[in-house]
Amino acid sequence: MSSSPEHEAGTAEDVETSVAEKPKLDLSVEITDAGPCKKHLKVAIAESDIERQYTESLGSIRRDAAVPGFRPGRAPKTLVNKRFRKEVQGQVKSALLMAALEQIDEDHKINPISQPNLDLEAITLPDGGPLEFEMDVEVQPEFALPSYKALSVNRPVREIAEKDVDAQLTSFLERYAQLVPKLEGGAELGDQITADLKFHKDGVALNEVREIQFRLQPELRFQDGRVPDLAGALLGAKPGEVRDADAEVGSASADPALRGQTIRVSFVVHDLKSYRLPEVDAEFLDSIGFDSDEELREALKEVLERRVQYQQRQSMRRQMLDAMIAEVPFDLPADLVARQERSTLRNHVQELRQAGLSDSQIRAREAEIRANSHESTLRSLKEFFLLAKIAEAEDLKVEENDLEAEIASMAARSDESPRRIRARIEKEGLAEGIASQILERKTIDRILEYVKIVDVSTTEDEKQVETVDELASPAAPESEPDADASTEAAPQPDA
Known about the structure:
The protein starts with a helix and ends in a 28-residue tail after the last strand. Strands 5, 6, 7, 8, 9, 10, 11 and 13 form an 8-stranded mixed sheet that branches. It has 3 domains: 134 residues, Trigger factor ribosome-binding domain (Alpha-Beta Plaits), CATH 3.30.70; 186 residues, Trigger factor, domain 2 (Orthogonal Bundle); 99 residues, Chitinase A, domain 3 (Roll), CATH 3.10.50. By secondary structure, it is of the alpha+beta class. Helix 5 packs across helix 8, helix 9 packs across helix 11 and helix 11 crosses helix 14. Strand 1 and strand 2 form a beta hairpin. The chain contains 14 helices and 13 strands. The protein is 45% helix and 19% strand.
C-alpha cells in the first residue's frame, strides 16, 4: 500500500529529529547574589528556540492526536494547533524550562543544593520575543579548604572501674524492677515522683502540667528547655510539699521572648515511688540469657567500653570541627536551616542508637536537641559542608562494599537478615542518608590519620538526665483566619 507524500515527509522529519542531537538553547543568563548561599537568576530563552520547540511539540502531539474525520497523524497542523493549543503550549514550556535548567547547570556550575524556587504557573509563553523567567537557587557555600591536616586534639581516656560496672548493672536491673510506694522518708535520686509542674516568670503563669511522672535525676529536660539542678530542688521532698527551681528555656520555645530566658518552675509533689530491683540469682540470669553474674558484668563492661569509644570519637570530632568552623566561617540561608531542622533530630537519634545508648539516654539527648534545634541544625549543616569539601579534596566516595558492610552491621545489631534491612532502606528511601553517614565516618577517619592526638585522663561521669514530653511555655496559638482572605489553609512548619 502506498503512502501519501505528506505522510512520508512527516515520517522522514520524525526520524531526523529523533536521530539528531538536541541543539543548545540560545540562553541569556544573568546571575546575582541574593543572600548567603543563594543566587538570583534572570533567564531569557531566544524566540528562535521557542519556535523550534513549538514545531517539535506540535509534531509530537499531531502523531497521536485523535481528531474526528482524520486518522492519527493525518490531521492538518493548523487544526491540531487550534484544537490542542493549550497542551502544545504546556509541552513547549515544560521542555524549554527543563532544557534551560540542565544547560544552566552545565554551563555555569552553580552547584544547587535544592530544587530552584520556580513558579511554573507564573511563566507564560510570549506572543513574540524571548521567554523570560526569574528564580532563586540555593547553592553550596563558598569557603577555603580548612587546614585539617595540622590539627591537634585531646582524646579523653578513662578506665572502666568496678563502680562503673556497678552503676551500669543497677541501670540494667531497673528494666526488670518493680515500682513500689515509698511510705517513709523523702525523695532520693532514682525515685519516681508524681507532681504538678507550674512554670512562671515575674509572677506571670506560663504553663501548667498536672500529674506528670518523672524520675529524680540531677537534671530534668522538657521539650523547650531544662531544669539544670533538679536534684538540688527535690532531694528530700515529701508528698504535699512544693519546691521551686530555676528552668532555662531553649530556642525551641514557641514564644520568642522566652528563648534563652531563665524562668521559675514550682513542683507540687503528690506521690513518691521507688524501684525494687530483682535478685540476681540463677533463675533471673537464665531468664535473660546469662550463665553467671560474672558473664553479665563482663557484657555490661563491654557496653561501657563501647560507650567510652563513642564518647572519645565524638569529643575529637567536635574539637576538629570547632577549629575548622572558626578558621573558615560562612553563612547559610535561614530557609535551608529551617527545612533541615526536622531531619537533624532523626539523624542524631539514629547515631545514638547505633552507639548503644539506652532508650532513656536517647530520649534525654533528643530533648536537648529539640530545645536547641536551631543551633544544632545550623551546626550540623556547617559540619556537613566542611566534611563534604574535605571528602572531595581527599577523593573519598561511598562504594557498594561500604553499603554492604553498613547493612551487615545494621542486621547484626537488630538481629534481622541483611536482605530485610536492604528492603526497608529502599522502601523508606533511607539510602541517601545512610550513604551520607558512611561518607562522614570515612572523612573523620581520614582527618584522624593526619591530626596530632593527645591522650588526656578523665574521670568525668555522664550526667544522669530525666526527660518529660512537656513544654514550659504554651504551644503557639493558631492564628484566626482573615475574614477577607482565602479559606485555603497556609502550609505550617513541621513540629
